[in-house]
Write a structure and sequence with these properties.
This protein is mostly helical. The protein has twelve helices and no strands. Helix 2 crosses helix 9 and helix 10 packs antiparallel against helix 12. The longest helix has 29 residues.
């Protein structure tokens, strides 16, 4: 589902920020209704947890805004590939914001990712270069969200946390559109095709995906889930070739760099799984 979100950035013929606004609106309504039907309960929540969730929601909005802007300016493949560099940012954001230990292995793998980005960005047009900057910014916000969310998930139920984060992201983006003078009834002008794709994006790729991910982690474990998410660039690029014919727009350097980045991301996940399996020493 998440691998398909980048493709939808091209299939939906709306401005990038409008796509995100509709995605959040549909996702919030869908998630709220599902939680009520499942009797999960969305209230009450402690004030400090509420404001923390709302703060993380702003990061979610910034992540999706820059992600879809990158896709709008270039290709779905480039947008999702940039997102893979989030691993690099986690290596320094984790120790900076939490008690996580700094890992030189993660840092070196991050440098290899940068080398991959170098190959990807050769022979870029001006528009692609701007898209790359948006995409790398999206990766930073994704990493920041990951670190903050990991800490917050220990304090509040994942269902409530997801709802408040998406609600906060929607409110933040609504204020941004108002400030930019882009909030009007025109945001609802779209084709039937765009509307159906937005429903798919908001309900299945967001609301359902959020709920399903929580259950998957419980049943299969965090590592299996993490490895699957790390394969998201592979899913997206394969879908982009089949659905959008992006193979005609990308050169060999792009595929070499992307292969290098994806291998590093998967290798990093496998390395961490081996560390967890090592027997502990001591009493």
């Amino acid at each position: 589902m998440w691998g398909f979100t980048g493709i939808l950035g091209k299939l939906i013929h709306l401005d990038a920020y409008i796509i995100v606004w509709h995605r959040l609106l549909i996702a919030v309504l869908g998630l709220f209704i599902v939680l009520i039907l499942l009797k999960k309960g969305v209230f009450p929540v402690q004030t400090k947890h509420f404001w923390k969730s709302m703060g993380v929601g702003v990061v979610v909005a910034l992540h999706w805004m820059t992600f879809y802007k990158s896709i709008e300016l270039s290709t779905a493949s480039l947008g999702i590939l940039c997102l893979s560099t989030a691993t690099l940012h986690v290596t320094w954001l984790g120790p900076l914001l939490t008690k996580q230990r700094f890992s030189w292995v993660d840092f070196l793998m991050g440098l290899i990712v940068i080398y991959g980005i170098y190959f990807v960005s050769t022979d870029f047009s001006e528009s692609d270069t701007v898209a790359l900057k948006y995409g790398l910014s999206s990766a930073f916000f994704a990493a920041l969200f990951s670190v903050l969310n990991a800490s917050l998930s220990k304090e509040i139920e994942p269902y409530k946390m997801s709802l408040y984060e998406l609600l906060s992201a929607f409110i933040f983006l609504s204020f941004c559109l108002l400030f930019w003078g882009e909030m009007s009834f025109d945001v609802f002008k779209m084709t039937t095709s765009d509307f159906l794709w937005l429903l798919f994006l908001g309900l299945l790729c967001t609301s359902f995906a959020f709920l399903a991910s929580i259950e998957v982690v419980k049943r299969l474990g965090a590592f299996t889930f993490s490895l699957s998410v790390n394969l998201e660039p592979v899913y997206t690029m394969l879908l982009a070739i089949v659905i959008l014919n992006e193979d005609e727009l990308l050169n060999r350097n792009f595929y070499f760099g992307s292969a290098l980045i994806v291998l590093v991301v998967i290798g990093n996940a496998l390395y961490k799984s081996l560390l967890k399996k090592e027997p502990s020493v001591g009493p």
